[in-house]
Amino acid sequence: MYTNPSSARVLELIRESLDRHVLPELQTDAARVTVQMMQQMLLSVERRLPVEQQWMADECGRMARLLQETPAALAASEGEPVTALRAIAERAAVAPAFPELPSFDVITESYRELSTLLTDALGHLHTLDGEGSAEAPELIRKLRAYLQLRIERDMQGLFAMEGGLLGRG
Amino acid sequence: MEAQLERFIRSERPDARSVRIEDLRVIAGGYSQETYRCDCVIESGGGTERLPLIVRRDPPPEADILPTNRRLEFELMERVRERTTIPVPEQHFLDETGAALDRPAMLMERLSGSSDLTALFAPGAEDEAEAVATELCERLAELHMTPIDALDPGGELRDPRSVGIDASSWDAYMASSIAYFKANYHNIAFDPLPVFYDMYASLPNRLPRPGRLAICHGDYQPSNFLYAGGQLTGVIDWENAHVGDPREELGWVHQMSALTGFDVWGAVKADGGFLEHYSKVSGIPASMDDVLFFQIFSTASLASPILDAVRRGLNGESDSFLNTYMLQSLIAVIPSFAAILGYPAAQEAL
Predict the structure, then answer these.
(1) Which of 87-116 (A) contact B at CB < 8 A?
(2) Which residues of B touch A155 (CB under 8 A)?
(3) In the prediction, which pLDDT does B178 show?
């Protein structure tokens, strides 16, 4: 997938284009306010995207710990609410424990670096192929098998093309 | 803009007593040039003329997806109109430097016909689609049979983007083009694009048999023609014309027929299909392997300026949203490249 632009950057570019190219052309206040609402929500998503996976994983751990600690502090108490809190703690105890996720920037940097290395490697392998290397074709095939996985993920998971390529080309 | 156009046309037509522009409208959706339509009414001693016009003007440089030269396009279209039977609009006026219209612009005849291919490729219109597609195929063959010197006497289409292409022979053209694709990738790739680089780097190892060079339209595809009543009425948008291998156009028609869903390639039935009919009419031999090679080659050629346009959009050098939207076209073509290059099935673990 692309690291540049990130999803957040695409949203930023859309938001800016709404500001420059769409808002000035709108005819009614109602339409202008609707677009401004859209821009505000796009900004919210921009801010959320780089952190939501990391924060959700982190907060899963925090919530599980809190829920398990709560009935422990009520060890001397009894009654229906305490019983319910113990049941909650038992369910929280079996929730998956996620490892700490690296920040979005760290993952992005690594993905970009490895993609660059893989791209350069393809170039060198084609040079070797042209020179008659017996091993190069199979090594190219292996890299392409990985890239095919990447293409399929991009097409299935990320890419919207409903309505075809818009504009006149 | 009406006033600018009126002043410009008046300066080009000193015999005119008055020039009036009517019904000026933007034609939206084009990727490269700014395009307008209007009528021009010229009063002179000879009476009243009404010229239906198309105005093609360079976009601002930072927003230019495919920087090209209006004068070259203007002159080539006029030569094609005079020296072939390909329907091309008559060229009326050229503002080569942009002195009158802010940026370089050309004013040409507005041809009759529709560019809406939805109707042409709708169920029930198969005969009309076949007739138009067959004519497109035959006019393409005619273009490629026309001597290069007849259409490009000054040799300016041998390297129209001035990127170091050597069109002195087929071997030199292919080698210099591929070298340019590879070298330029490192200048314009806004992100690692391994499939694109794989495509560029693999080209030297899968060259087709040599052929001859010809004038290529450079973007011969479903968006760039007009039709009416089962006939081709116009071939437009010659801005990417260049001296190249004519099989590039076959690859591009094949590519864009699949990408746009308007299957010009599949609509030709004569002689067994587009490829066979083209080869018979032009005398230029071409195989399906050639078509697939040049599908990659021609896309590689057009991808270079598009990649650069995306890069400028992401860097903030351009504020046109089109630069960003071009990402979609780059993603859309990748699966077909992978198929042509023979990518194996995806593997979760290597």
Answers:
(1) 112, 115-116
(2) 331, 335
(3) 94
Do B296 and B208 contact (CB within 8 A), yes or no? Answer: no
B332 and B197 assigned to the same domain: yes
Is A16 in contact with B329 (Cβ distance < 8 A)?
A: no
The domain of B229 spans 117-349
| pTM for the full predicted model | 0.83
Return the higher-pLDDT residue of B305 and A54: A54
For residues B146 and B229, membership in a common domain is answered with yes
Distance CA B256, CA B222 (A): 7
Q: How many domains does chain B have?
A: 2
CATH number, domain with residue B135: 3.90.1200.10
pLDDT for residue A80: 94
CB B77 within 8 A of CB B93: no
- Nearest by Cα to B25 from B33, B36, B9, B40: B36
Shared domain check, B180 and B81: no
Same domain, B123 and B255: yes
CATH of the domain at B23: 3.30.200.20
What sign has the CA pseudo-torsion A161, A163, A168, B5?
negative
Contact (Cβ atoms closer than 8 angstroms) between residue B142 and residue B135: no
What is the model's pLDDT at position B293?
A: 94
Strand partners, B55: B36, B107
The helix/strand/coil state of B218 is coil
In angstroms, the first-to-last Cα distance of chain B is: 60
Mean of the per-residue pLDDT values for chain A?
92
**Residues A138-164, mean pLDDT to the nearest whole number:** 85
Do B249 and B127 reside in the same domain of the chain? yes
Query: What pLDDT sits at residue B349?
Result: 45
Q: Contacts of residue B331 in chain A, CB cutoff 8 Å?
A: 154-155, 159
- Verify that B104 and B121 share a domain, yes or no: no
The pair of three-digit structure tokens given for residue B58, joined into one six-digit string: 């360079």
Around Cβ A41, how many Cβ atoms within 10 Å? 12
Mean predicted confidence (pLDDT) in A4-14: 93
Instruction: Please tell me which residue of chain A has the smallest CA distance to B66.
Output: A169
Residue A80 makes CB contacts below 8 A (sequence gap 6+) with: none
User: pLDDT below 50 — which residues of chain B?
Assistant: 349
Q: Are residues B150 and B26 in the same domain?
A: no
The predicted complex's ipTM stands at 0.82
Same domain assignment for residues B60 and B124: no
- In a 13 Å sphere around the CA of A78, the CA atoms on its Cβ side amount to 0
pLDDT at position B129:
95
Angle at alpha carbon of residue B57, lines to B56 and B59, rounded to 5°: 130
